[in-house]
Amino acid sequence: MASVVPRPIRDLGKALIDFALPARCAGCADVIEEPGVFCPSCWVKNLWLGDGGCARCGLPLEGTEAETCARCLERPPPIDRIRAAVAYDDLPRSIALRLKYGRKVALARTMARYMAPLSGNWAGGAILVPVPLHRWRLWSRGFNQSGLVACELAKAWNLPLDQRSLRRIRRTVPLKGMSVLQRRKAVAGAFTVAEGIRLDGRTVVLIDDVLTSGSTAEACARALRRAGAARIELICWARVVRPAQLMR
Ligand SMILES: [Zn+2]
Ligand SMILES: [Zn+2]
Predict the structure, then answer these.
(1) Which ligand is nearest to the CA of 69?
(2) Are 60 and 53 in contact (CB under 8 A)?
(3) Contact (Cβ atoms closer than 8 angstroms) between residue 159 and residue 193
(4) Residue 83 C-beta-side C-alpha neighbours within 13 Å
(5) What is the pLDDT of residue 201?
(6) What Å distances lie between residue 121 and 60, 173, 203, CA to CA?
(7) What are the residues whose beta carbons fall under 8 Å from the beta carbon of 235, sequence distance 6 or more?
(8) For residue range 81-90, what is the model confidence (pLDDT) as tens digits?
(9) What share of the chain is helix, strand, coil (3-state, %, to 5)?
(10) 174, 162 Cβ separation under 8 angstroms
């Protein structure tokens, strides 16, 4: 039914609904002034991570560390810069799950709104690449949640969005409960850059919803690097941060 309504009329209808309905907080559904933001009481519940910390991994630095943490200096990670909007906790988790499984696609805009300030030094140009889903998963879900967020960020940052180059060629089992080593093995070879595509010298900004161990993003980074990417960054909505990493 909806598909036979001409697009301009549908868009107008949507605009009218957006106009008529009050904006609601993504956390508690209270009425708020501006769409896509948290109300003050939900905002303070979140632990916002900002752009500080280690220049590479983004985790808080010890007092004796300068710009890069000792771990990154000792073994430079495959991703050149990692940033997340918020520490993974009940509210950020519910936002990510409601987008992914509850199909609340408007939440992609909320996530992007708080990820947008984490932009990097991309004066030389960069492409945005969401962590891809396997095509069967994409088919069953109907959308890639990270792709929706990346689409919003592409608009905010005025950068091209590339949803075709990076592919998930192998379905992976859920990584929950696995050790870092098991996770790394589980995603090894799961990603590739489409044949014939070269990313020589490019800066690629990976977009993901939740960062846990980093195994998935690192597997993506290795595939991008093989295709010639010069610099790879990862911007995500929420990251798991151990309390000890924050207490420093
Ligand atoms: Zn709220
Ligand atoms: Zn680091």
Answers:
(1) 2
(2) yes
(3) no
(4) 22
(5) 95
(6) 20, 35, 10
(7) 83, 84, 115, 118, 119, 153, 205, 206, 207, 208
(8) 999 999 999 9
(9) 40, 15, 45
(10) no
Q: Is the per-residue pLDDT at 15 higher than 90?
A: no
pLDDT score of 20: 65
Q: How far is the CA of 235 from the centre of ligand 1 (A)?
A: 24
- Contact (CB, 8 A) for 195 and 167: no
Distance 182 CA to ligand 2 centre (A): 22
Residue ranges near ligand 1 (ion) with Cβ within 5 Å: 25, 27-28, 39, 42
CB-based neighbours (< 5 A) of ligand 2, an ion: 54, 56-57, 69, 72
31-32 and 23-24: which strand pairing?
Answer: antiparallel
The per-residue pLDDT for range 158-181, each reduced to its tens digit, is: 999 999 999 999 888 888 888 888
Q: Taking 50 as the threshold, does the pLDDT of residue 2 lie above it?
A: no
What is the pLDDT at residue 1?
Answer: 43
